[in-house]
Please model this.
Amino acid sequence: MKPLYGLVGRRLGHSFSARFFADKFAKEGIDAEYRNFELTTIDELPRMLQENPNLKGFNVTLPYKEEIIPFLDSLSGEARQIGAVNCVKVEDGRLTGHNTDAYGFCNSLLHLIGNERPDALVLGTGGASKAVKYILQQLGIRFRCVSRSHKNGDLTYDDLAANPSIVGDTKLIINATPLGTFPDVDTFPDLPYSAVTPGHYFFDLVYNPEQTLFMRKGAEYGAKTSNGYEMLVGQAIKAWGIWSGNE
Model:
């Protein structure tokens, strides 16, 4: 059987990874297959592994980046610090969790902000936000997290509505929520966008559609914007390096 790689998540109909790796394998003459594995719950993972003994590695996406950790035999140092896994290597029956989101996010963010280190608001507190917060700490960028309740974040969306100057004074705004993802393209984080200036940067981890409503609203006030596509490509390339033994 040829080596198998894949993506584990709940809804994968519009997944980037399957297309990316199919193209990569064809272009580079790699005799391998990449397949989507939709799991209703993460408890289905052991059966999936048993049914696919030729699986050598897999990516992990929503909502399992944190839930998968108890099923793994070990974590890389970075994945342990971040507390979320989006890449797993399968070797001799052992599962090792990695986080390549951090690598992809870091490179993409630096392309957007260059040498600047503006204070940041991180929208969302799920698994995707953990890699974002880790990289912001590594870069020395001060940040606060925004959620629907104070239990999960430093600020709530109601706090921002009541005090728009928080948005006005915080020049880097990162959407780490799934809001705006296809097919729900009419959704967006509830911010006082009128406080945004041409000095702002809007980074959206969403990559489909290419320009989200969050990005469009920021651009209306002059903000520089970036979507999650470059981050996604970066994390995929890093994942292949781990699986193929080149990392």
User: Anything to note?
Assistant: The radius of gyration is 18 Å. The longest strand covers residues 4-9. The CA atoms of residues 56 and 90 lie 5 Å apart.
